[in-house]
Design brief:
Blueprint lengths: L2 E5 L3 H13 L3 E5 L2 H10 L4 E5 L7 H11 L4 E6 L4 H9 L4 E4 L4 H33 L8 H13 L6 E4 L6 H10 L9 E4 L5 H9 E2 L11 E2 L1 H4 L4 E5 L6 H13 L1 E2 L8 E2 L3 E6 L3 H6 L5 H7 L2 E4 L10 H16 L5 E2 L1 H7 L7 H15 L4 E2 L5 H11 L10 H19 L4 H8 L3 H11 L3
Parallel strand pairs: 1-2, 1-3, 3-4, 4-5, 6-13, 6-14, 7-10, 10-13, 15-16
Antiparallel strand pairs: 8-9, 11-12
Length: about 450
């Protein structure tokens, strides 16, 4: 049953119309005070509001403006008496659905309401179809038919329209940013671009300014006022990649932003309101970091309202053929190369690998193979760089008296870090880049493994 609010200072007229319209199957409320009517609009969901254009307490144009500020998509019909025709036209320009001139027959108003109902029904159906199309296109970049990926997509659809914080967990290269962008694209904030930052990629002394901005003169190189990423992401989504790398002092400030929805630029004393949805991602086990004092427990639970875990590629090998096909088409188009036939042995070989770098590693391997492919067939031989990596694993010595997998992985990781450091003459920054980990993580592992 559609719900209607009548707003008119003429009590008898309002009562007469309310009685007639309610007999036609509408749920009708009335108010003789525009200010009281605005409170009713705040606290109720009306399908239609019918208001007079001239009222002593507040004129109809001001009432229309304030009503639409409360509920932007409210359907408002204005009633105009003799001499207020131009005002009624102005009301339609400002967002009213239509107007009806007094005096009118109740049947005329009823006909106008029926037309408004039809329009609202079409709008709802249009929104439903748009949302369905949005969901399909928003998930296009998340490729795979495995049950793990189908389950992930369903969770993305469920959480996207809800304005809650999300933590995305997954190994490096699994596609955490793709998932974050899909959530944003399916959300109510998608009209504005998502803002992304990798917390591991920015030096500790710069990340506060990057996030919160600064005032002119706040520090040596602050020559002008500068808005931070929180302000840039106002009314949108801020994606904090590798949130586990955020220094503890900034974790405290991030917690305050989540709780108060306010930020303060470096060098300022005034807070600024921001409306930002936060999506965070990590390749670390944040609960372990909480236990070891590297991550604030209160911030973890503030962020972890909804948790998404992206499976590593080795746990969804059924998706490798479809991913391979996708990347082959992508890079053939990019490099203007004729699409090769993929040998069955190639697919079988790729499904046997561990894929430490996950989908990103597969993508890079396919691009390299497409460049090397000088025939019409994509063969195992074109993935020579992957074959070299598998030989490294075969060279790991196995102690039959101690078959601990954790110890074997730790030994391999230690040796791999030593090799990376040697390759760049001990430059830890370059070694971190080579290993595709943050500088902070590398320092932690050097200390953990006692590497000198």
């Amino acid at each position: 049953m559609p719900k209607i609010l009548f707003v008119d200072d003429d009590y008898e007229f309002t009562n007469m119309l309310s009685t007639y319209i309610s007999m036609e199957g509408y749920d009708v409320e009335s108010s003789n005070s525009p200010k009281s009517a605005l409170n009713l609009i705040k606290n109720n969901n009306y399908d239609f509001v019918i208001t007079d254009i001239r009222m002593p307490e507040m004129d109809g144009l001001r009432f229309l403006q304030e009503a639409l500020e409360i509920k932007r998509d409210l359907t408002v019909i204005v009633m105009s008496a003799y001499g207020t025709y131009e005002t009624a036209i102005e009301a339609v320009k400002r967002g009213a659905y239509d107007y009806i001139s007094k005096p009118f027959k109740p049947e005329e108003l009823l006909l106008l309401l029926k037309k408004a109902e039809e329009r609202e029904s079409l709008k709802r159906e249009n929104n439903r179809l748009r949302m369905q199309l949005k969901q399909e296109s928003g998930l296009d970049n998340i490729i795979g038919n495995s049950f793990q990926i189908q389950e992930l997509k369903e969770k993305i659809k469920r959480v996207s329209p809800l304005d809650v914080t999300v933590i995305i967990q997954g190994e490096s290269g699994t596609g955490k940013e793709l998932v974050a962008r899909a959530i944003h694209d399916l959300s109510k904030r998608s009209e504005h671009p998502i803002v992304a930052i990798n917390c591991a990629a920015i030096p500790e002394n710069l990340i506060e300014s990057e996030l919160f901005g600064h005032a002119r003169g706040a520090f040596t190189d602050a020559h002008t006022d500068r808005a931070g990423l929180f302000e840039e992401a106002n009314n949108s989504t801020l994606f904090l990649d590798e949130i586990g790398e955020l220094p503890l002092n900034l974790q405290t400030k991030l917690l305050r932003v989540i709780e108060t929805k306010e930020i303060r630029r470096i060098g300022e004393t005034k807070d600024r309101k921001v409306d930002v949805r936060i999506i965070a991602a990590t390749s670390r086990n944040l609960l372990d970091d909480v236990k070891e004092g590297r991550f604030r427990e209160d911030l973890y639970y503030r962020l972890n309202v909804f948790n998404l875990v992206i499976p590593p590629l080795r746990e969804r090998v059924d998706d490798i053929p479809i991913l391979l096909k996708h990347f082959v088409l992508k890079f053939c188009k990019k490099h203007n190369i004729r699409e090769p036939v993929i040998e069955k042995a190639t697919i079988e070989f790729l499904t046997t690998l561990r894929w430490e770098g996950n989908v990103r590693q597969l993508e890079n391997a396919v691009e390299s193979a497409i460049i090397l492919c000088d025939s019409g067939t994509l063969a195992v031989s074109h993935f020579s760089q992957l074959k070299a990596r598998t030989d490294e694993y075969r060279d790991i010595e196995i102690d039959e008296k101690d078959m601990s997998l954790n110890k074997a992985v730790a030994k391999f990781e230690r040796n791999f870090i030593i090799k990376a450091l040697a390759a760049v003459n001990g430059n830890r920054t370059k070694a971190a880049q080579l290993l595709n980990i943050s500088h902070r993580t590398l320092l932690y592992k050097i200390k953990e493994y006692g590497i000198k």
